[in-house]
Model the fold of this input.
Amino acid sequence: MSSRTVIRGGLVITASDELHADVLIEDGRIAALAASGTPAAEAWTAERTIDASGKYVIPGGVDVHTHMELPFGGTFASDTFETGTRAAAWGGTTTIVDFAVQSVGHSLREGLDAWHAKAEGNCAIDYGFHMIVSDVNQETLKEMDLLVEEGVTSFKQFMAYPGVFYSDDGQILRAMQRSAENGGLIMMHAENGIAIDVLVEQALARGETDPRYHGEVRKALLEAEATHRAIKLAQVAGAPLYVVHVSAMEAVAELTRARDEGLNVFGETCPQYLFLSTDNLAEPDFEGSKYVCSTPLRPKEHQAQLWKGLRTNDLQVVSTDHCPFCFVGQKELGRGDFSKIPNGLPGVENRMDLLHQAVVEGHISRRRWIEIACATPARMFGMYPKKGTIAPGADADVVIYDPNAEQVMSAETHHMNVDYSAYEGKSTTGRVETVLSRGEVVINEREYTGRAGHGVYTPRSTCQYLN
Done:
C-alpha cells in the first residue's frame, strides 16, 4: 500500500534554496517538488493534503549532541529516550545523535549495546549514536574500526573530567591516529580538566561555593588552551577534529586560525552560549545552578564572536548538548559545593525556535538557520541527503513552521522532562506547527500524534566534508 502526502503553498527553505513549492511525499520519502500552482503540482493526488500557505516548509532539525539518560555526578539526565525524543519532535527536530558511553575497564561494544537497549522501541524520531571513548587501549582501538564499519563513525574524547571521562594527550593521540586510518571523526570536549580541578579545589577552600564560581574556575583561557592542543594533536595524527560546545571567543580564535591554515577542524556551539551568560549563573537563591553546564556560560561579550563565527563558517553547527537535570533533587545536590552540581541544560525542544529568533534579530539568514541546524550536522556526521534537506529521495522529515506565531518559553508548556526552562519567560517569534518524521505526522497542528518506537536507529557514513 503506497501512502502519499502533499504539502501545498509553503515557502520551502533548505541550506541552498528558498522556493514557493509543493512537496510530494510517497512511502516516507520526498518524491518530488514542483512550483506551487503549476500544472505539475496541481496534478498530484494524495490521501493527505497539508496546507502550508504563509508558512515555511523546512527539513526536520538534526541535533547531533544530546545526552538522554546519561549517568553523571551520581544521578541521571532526567529525559529518557522516550520523553527526550518526543520533546525534540515538539521543537521541530526529527533526528538526534546521542552519546553511548564506554566505562573505564569495559569495551566500546558493551557501552554501545547498553545505549541501544535504552533507545530501541522508545524513540519518537530517528536516532544515531556517537561513542564516548573513556579507556583507550589496544582493544579499544581495534573496536573503533569495527564501529566505523557498522555506522558509528564518531568518537568523543574529554580533556576534562579527570577520573570520569578524561583522556591524556597520549590516549588522545592514539585515538586520533586510529581515526585518521578508519575514517572516524574525533569529537573533543576541549577544557584543561587537570588545571580546572586545581582551581575548583582552591575556590572551595576560599569558601567560594555558589554556582557562579563554576563559570569562574572553568576559565576561557583553559578552553582556548585545550582547543589549541587538540588541534595540534589532530595535526600530528593527520586526523580531522570536531570541537564540541565552543563557548569562548578565545577558543573560536583557535578554530579560525586552524581553518585559515586549511586544516580539517570543525566547531560546534549551542544556544545556551548564544542566548545566556554568566549573569544567569549569578542568579540568587541557588537559581544559578540551573545554568551550570560545561563548557560554562561566558560573559555576554563572547556572544558576538560566536555569532560572527557562525556567519563566517568558522563554527559550522549549532546543537544543544541537551543534558537536563531537575532543579529539585538533582541540581540541588550541589548546594554548598558548586562542583557537585550536575553539569547540563535542557534545550532539545528550544533550538530550532531560538535559531529562528536569531533570524528575526538579524544574526543569521534563513538559509543559514537551516544550514547550521539541519544540513551541516547531517553532512558532518554522514547522514546527508537522507537527513537535513528537502529533496527527492530524502527521508520525509519535514516541519511546517509558522514564522509569525508568538510564543513565550516556559517550563509550564514545554515537553522536556525537567522542572525548569533555561529560557523561562523568553518571547520568541516563530513556532513549529506540524512535524513529519519519515512521512508520518508526529505533531499535527500543535498536537502530538507520534508514538514511542516510530523512530529507528540510523547508521551513519563518515564525515562528508572529508570525501
Q: What stands out?
A: The chain has a mean pLDDT of 97. The two ends are 38 Å apart (CA to CA).
